């Protein structure tokens, strides 16, 4: 077998080994996080605030550590809704969850999270508590950012 084919086979095999390593590492991290964090409350259907892109949930004290537990590590399209109990993040194709108003610590604007940088104040960041851990959930709003943030801030202000 010529050297070129051997090198190609080794490199392709290496890609599969690295992919398997990453998969099992994330799986183990998810299992560990699920042992220390309670499951977030299920989302409740409420009044829609705006469509957004769910970017990430990270630990507030370790903003470079993504929360993988209960499917929170996967990005995707979402709809932010509010009801009497809190803010519901209804995610397409993933687990939806509720951030109770009683757990909500602050509402902020940001321009970066674990693997996403956007324009100034391009992210809505919800700081909240789950099982004694402070988390930051980042949402990307692409349309009517100022209006939607103001509307969300008003909902949070009235609920507190």
Share in helix: 25-40%
How would you describe the oligomerization state of the chains in this entry?
single chain
Give the CATH class of the largest domain.
Answer: Mainly Beta
Query: What is the total domain count?
Result: 2
| CATH fold-type name of the largest domain | PH-domain like
Mean pLDDT: 92
What's the main sheet like? Answer: 8 strands, antiparallel
Fold topology:
Elements: H1 3-36, E1 47-59, E2 62-66, E3 76-82, E4 86-91, E5 97-100, E6 104-110, E7 112-113, E8 116-117, E9 123-130, E10 133-140, H2 145-159
Antiparallel strand pairs: 1-2, 1-3, 1-10, 3-4, 4-5, 6-9, 7-8, 9-10
What does this 3D model show about the protein?
The protein has 160 residues and is α+β, with helices and mostly antiparallel strands. It has two domains: 1-36; 47-159, PH-domain like, CATH 2.30.29.30. The chain is 31% helix and 39% strand. The protein has helices at 3-36, 145-159; strands spanning 47-59, 62-66, 76-82, 86-91, 97-100, 104-110, 112-113, 116-117, 123-130, 133-140. Strands 1, 2, 3, 4, 5, 6, 9 and 10 form an eight-stranded antiparallel β-sheet that branches. Strands 7-8 form a two-stranded antiparallel sheet. A hairpin with a 5-residue loop joins strand 4 (86-91) and strand 5. The termini are far apart.
